[in-house]
Amino acid sequence: MKPIETSVTVAAPPERMFAIFTDLEGAPGRIRGIKKVELLTPGPVRVGTKWRETRVFGKREATEVLEVTEFVPGRTFSVGCSSCGCRYDSTFRFERAGSGTKVTATMRGTALTLPAKLFAPILGALMRGMMTKCVQQDLDDAKRAAEAST
Q1: 5 SS3 class
Q2: Which CATH class is domain 4-148?
Q3: How far apart, in whole angstroms, are the C-alpha atoms of residue 82 and residue 67?
Q4: Distances (CA, A) of 78 to 1, 40, 68, 73, 98
Q5: Residue 25: CB atoms within 10 Å
Q6: Total-model pTM
Q7: pLDDT in tens for each of the 150 residues of the chain?
Q8: Cα pseudo-dihedral 91, 9, 62, 48, rounded to 10
Q9: N or C end of the chain: smaller count of CB under 10 Å?
């Protein structure tokens, strides 16, 4: 799957946006698509932190275990998971934009199994629009949360 990239500019500093994205337990209250989060790794969020996340896609729910793969406070936050024969990796970058922050999300999907590789061209095209919309909605929801509290 070709990478999906989308961004939003927020009237809040990078540190604030990074804190919103890494507050995993608070995500269901800010991000409409996230129904439930269950932390599986105790302690502060860091590389290796795992959690179970239940999301709503249209009328369906999907639950996956995600793991933090990169964590640079105030700058970059990456997560990954494996599902249905594919590996999904998402990176969120936080860059100062005037007095605010430009948040850029990049999502990559890689087919790992033979069935996933065979169906990737068809399903990838069908899912691309839905995934882009989902990622953009997450960014817009985080923006609303940050700007409502500043």
Answers
A1: strand
A2: alpha beta
A3: 10
A4: 18, 17, 6, 11, 24
A5: 11
A6: 0.89
A7: 688 899 999 999 999 999 999 999 999 999 999 999 999 999 999 999 999 999 987 788 999 999 999 999 999 999 999 988 889 999 999 999 999 999 999 999 888 778 777 777 766 666 777 788 888 999 999 999 999 875
A8: 30
A9: C
